[in-house]
Amino acid sequence: MRIFISTGEVSGDLQGAMLIDALKRQAGAIKSDLEIVALGGDRMAAAGANLLADTTSIGSVGFLEAVPFVVPTWQIQNQAKNYLQQNPPDIVVLIDYPGPNLAIGNYIRQQLPQVTVVYYIAPQDWAVPMLGNAKKIARIADKLLAIFPQEANYFRKQGINVTWVGHPLLDRIEKSPSRENARICLGIELDRQAIALLPASRPQELKYLLPVICEAAQEIQAKLPQVTFLIPVSLAIYRDVIEKAVKSYGLQATILEGKTLEAIAAADLAITKSGTVNLEIALLNVPQVVLYRIHPFTAWIARKLLGFSIPLMSPPNLVVNREIVPEFQQERATAANIAAESLKILFNRDKQAQILAGYQQMRSLLGEVGVCDRAAAKILKIANQ
């Protein structure tokens, strides 16, 4: 059986790799041979996919931010379309990454109508309907595998064939270390205050988020001289930039590669960009402060010309439709605000308890462990029909 998987960015590569592992398990159970070709990253390649192109470092959010990636994205799209034309798969699985994936889906519907398309982890239209992807997905997808119950309900109302499988991070967190084991692994004293800094999974975030996070950390360090910062690097190519920033701001920090869960589990608090990692932090029961910034011109276009309003951005808040973790967007995402909120959480047990109670509510809405196997079994069943 030939399966083509398309995704992009760091989070997509992680989700894709987990799905590939599950596809292999499920295929083994029914004694089916698989050939998996993919657009993704190193994790998917390590899981067994033949990587057609690496898409982990060409993702962006915003108009100006996307400009540097137009040509490489177009080149990869053409490469993928040529491959699909010459090697039609039994099934195509699209994971998040809406712009490029919708283009691939449209190509398949027009040129390879016999190929089944499954969308797994759809764009977040259920939270921000103004994104306007639902009708496009309805035209290209034979099946949508939803990870949030609200997502399933929303797309089902748009006439799309939907099955809710739950959130795959539940499977990932099952293998995460305890706080004590994470600290032993990283060589951190059990009684020392530690803060995880998670600034970037996209190049633009290094520019807009890394400086303000480092400045906030500098303010915290001035008040808590014994604090240590843990900075997991999402892509190795970001390490040099992060190392220079840590040195420039004089932070007592350890930069880690391949130990994101350990860094989070060991922390008393996380200061983080908005994204999938917020759910990992929440599932590990670590309080967090979330921020997001884009180019001011992009923000102005979104607000003034397109009428975009995003009252909540962080996934834990979106799941429960209220603010359970503090988030600071655009002009409010200042070092002073982030440092003040971080210190408030660190020294206020009631605030910590509120956040953890919110996490429990969020966790109850994400389904049950075994998500990747359920998704993989559904994909193989559809492919065999």
Q: Which percent band covers the strand fraction? A: 15-25%
| DSSP helical segment count | 19
**Low-confidence parts lasting 5 or more residues at pLDDT below 50?**
none
Q: Roughly how many Å apart are the termini? A: 12 Å
Q: Give the full name of the CATH homologous superfamily of the largest domain.
A: Glycogen Phosphorylase B
Sketch the major β-sheet: 7 strands, parallel
Helix share bin:
40-55%
Mean pLDDT across all residues, rounded? Answer: 92
How many structural units, i.e. domains? 2
Task: Give the strand tally.
Answer: 13
Rg (C-alpha, Å): 21 Å
Name given to the CATH architecture of the largest domain = 3-Layer(aba) Sandwich
Structural class: alpha/beta
Q: Can you walk through the features of this model?
A:
The protein is an alpha/beta fold and 385 residues long. It folds into 2 domains: 2-172 and 369-384, Glycogen Phosphorylase B (Rossmann fold, 3-Layer(aba) Sandwich), CATH 3.40.50.2000; 175-363, Glycogen Phosphorylase B (Rossmann fold, 3-Layer(aba) Sandwich), CATH 3.40.50.2000. It is built from 19 helices and 13 strands. It has helices at residues 9-29, 42-47, 63-66, 70-86, 98-111, 134-140, 149-157, 169-173, 179-186, 203-208, 210-223, 239-249, 260-266, 277-283, 296-305, 315-320, 335-346, 349-363, 371-384, and strands spanning 2-6, 35-40, 50-54, 91-95, 116-120, 143-146, 162-164, 194-198, 228-233, 253-257, 269-273, 288-292, 327-329. It has a 7-stranded parallel sheet with strand order 3-2-1-4-5-6-7, with helices on both faces. A 6-stranded parallel sheet has the order 10-9-8-11-12-13, with helices on both faces. Helix 11 (210-223) packs parallel to helix 12. The model has no long low-confidence stretch (mean pLDDT 92).
